[in-house]
Amino acid sequence: MELRVTTGSAKNKKLIAPEIPGFRAVQEIAKSSMFSIIGEKIEGSVCLDLFAGSGNLGIEALSRGAAWCDFVDGNSGSAEAIRKNVENCGFYDKSSVTLKNAVKYVAATDKKYDLIFMDPFYSDLSQKHLLSLLKDRLKETGQLFYFYSPEHASETKIIVETSGLKIIDSREFGSSIFAIITKEE
């Protein structure tokens, strides 16, 4: 599987995918769609890439002008791939890579983010507690981009709504959907 940065200062840089059973990267068309929705909000933003895998989404954000990205993944192979990708793209001084479970990381930090990317394994449906915690990690105008599978759409909607967040839009791309989530007003 070939991953690459599509736009910005690291355009066309190749990314290493971690060797993890079941790993799948966000499709390039979905990534492009997401970043066209984010638009100029990316400039100077502080981002969190949870279940970061290869670091694909956070690195794309940095390439497009984000000021900082925290990468979090509970798999050591992923953390190693992210470190190599961050270094290869020249973003070592604009990021941190943490090998930690997403819930534990979010529960332990008091940092606030403009943009949060969340792309867990689709079989991992333990996001209810995590989404409740993320509500307090989003800045007032922040957005969370959550990737999930179409067969989990109805339960995802319920999980989001019971966490004090709301889905303002969603896009489907084949076997994945991403929801754009904000704080309830």
Please give a structural write-up:
The chain has helices at 28-38, 56-63, 76-88, 102-108, 128-135, 153-161, and strands at 3-4, 14-15, 46-50, 68-73, 95-99, 113-118, 138-148, 165-173, 176-183. With 185 residues, it is an alpha/beta fold. The chain has one domain (3-183): 3-Layer(aba) Sandwich (Rossmann fold). Strands 5-4-3-6-7-9-8 form a seven-stranded mixed beta sheet, sandwiched between helices. A hairpin with a 2-residue loop joins strand 8 (165-173) and strand 9. Helix 4 (102-108) packs parallel to helix 5 (128-135). The longest helix is centred in the middle third of the chain and has 13 residues, at 76-88.
How would you describe this structure in keywords?
single chain, 185 residues, alpha/beta, Rossmann fold, seven-stranded mixed beta sheet, two-stranded antiparallel sheet, 6 helices, globular
Quick overview:
The chain has 185 residues and is an alpha/beta fold. The protein has helices spanning 28-38, 56-63, 76-88, 102-108, 128-135, 153-161; strands at residues 3-4, 14-15, 46-50, 68-73, 95-99, 113-118, 138-148, 165-173, 176-183. It has one domain: Rossmann fold (3-Layer(aba) Sandwich).
Write the topology of this structure.
Blueprint: E1 3-4, E2 14-15, H1 28-38, E3 46-50, H2 56-63, E4 68-73, H3 76-88, E5 95-99, H4 102-108, E6 113-118, H5 128-135, E7 138-148, H6 153-161, E8 165-173, E9 176-183
Parallel strand pairs: 3-4, 3-6, 4-5, 6-7
Antiparallel strand pairs: 1-2, 7-9, 8-9
Helix pairs in contact: 4-5
